Amino acid sequence: MTIYDAIDEFKRIRPFSLVPAQAFLDTLAPMVQEQLVAGIYIGKDHIHKSPLTPGEEVSRFYTDHLPRDKYADVLAKHGNDAIIHLDKMVQCAEASGFDFGNL
What we know:
Radius of gyration: 12 Å
Structural class: mainly alpha
Order of helices and strands: HHHH
Helix content: 55-70%
Number of helices: 4
Distance between the termini: 14 Å
Number of strands: 0
Number of domains: 1
């Protein structure tokens, strides 16, 4: 499953509590899990921007501070806002010609 497929599935099933969030993450490859969580943070950081910030590193480093067993906490904590942040990440990536599949 690609990051874009994972985002679509996340938006469809809306796993906004801890157990469903972990169950959803368990269906994803570790790299896609990192991309998804990084995407939430990237989208949040770019919420009032159109393209990605020029010169700013866009990578999975957004998850470096977070142990993998805490990823479900991020999905549950951000809830509906995670969808907004992921949509913003995709919008900014498209405006910048960046493919998050390469994140």
